[in-house]
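Lecture 7 notes: from sequence to structure.
We start with the chain below.
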Amino acid sequence: MFERRSLKFPITVGVTMIVTLVVLIVGWILLAVFGATRESQNAPVYWTVLTVGTALFVLLLVGVVIYLVLSIKAVNLNRRQSNFVDSVTHELKSPIASLKLYLQTMGMRHVNEAERKGFVKFMLEDVERLDTLITHLLAVGTIAQDAATKEIEAVQLDELVREISESVCARHQQESEVVQLELVPCVVQSNRVDLDMIIRNLVDNAVKYAGESPRVNVQLTSTPQHAILQVSDNGNGIPRHMRRKIFGRFVRLGSELERERPGTGLGLYIVSTLVRSMGGEVEVTDSRDGGAKFTVKLPSISHQEPAARESAPAASPQLKTAVS
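Predicted structure tokens for the same chain:
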């Protein structure tokens, strides 16, 4: 789950810096010896030692900079992993505590039929939350598997977007009108589960991080070569300096102690990795409502006219996949 980085490169840099420092010290000693007689026959040796010493000094400075960068990355990775552990711990404990409370209540006293139905409804939501979290964590372990092992099929992308949007609205107990759809029928040759993960993460994030009166717009357009999906919301947006970082593992804005919305910091990493594996692109910009707009460009195989959509085969049942 956590990133495993090879120690070969930092060890090589460290050894190189030590050897360079030793050679540099010896060089300065020789330079001092030949410096006193640099106008004599030792002048060529003097300038050679000076040139080599200067080059080694620059190399040493470069090594220090590289080590500093590696150290900063290690600190940031540790911070993100700590946030990830805090987030997953909260995501696991909250539904378990809720389930325990409902079960204890039902076991300790008699509840009428209306209360029982309400309890069952809330418990199913908690189970769904746990199932989503576990599926999400397992997805990270298999996300980078060879594309040759995945089942590739022609997926009616507009129908999949419609299904997922309805599912996300129901999950967040929002009216379906919250997500406005502008879809052009198109087909993408890819793995359906991977496409489901990409779309579900983006739409779920948009609904989750939208404003108090959530408004999410999902646009799907098509060119002869690409399907272009745009998901925008009216939330607080994403700072410019974080727009590339948010696609990394465990990256979430703010501190876990101050965060109100659930998540693991893996959703956008999954989106970015899957989109790149399909030969596509993903970027984030400002939306017209002040929030964030994610644009995904995927290779498409066909563009259908709206009239052809009625004769298209019905989409397969909704897939249950990971969301952030």
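Points to note: The first helix runs from residue 8 to 35. The chain has two domains: 1-142, 147-311.
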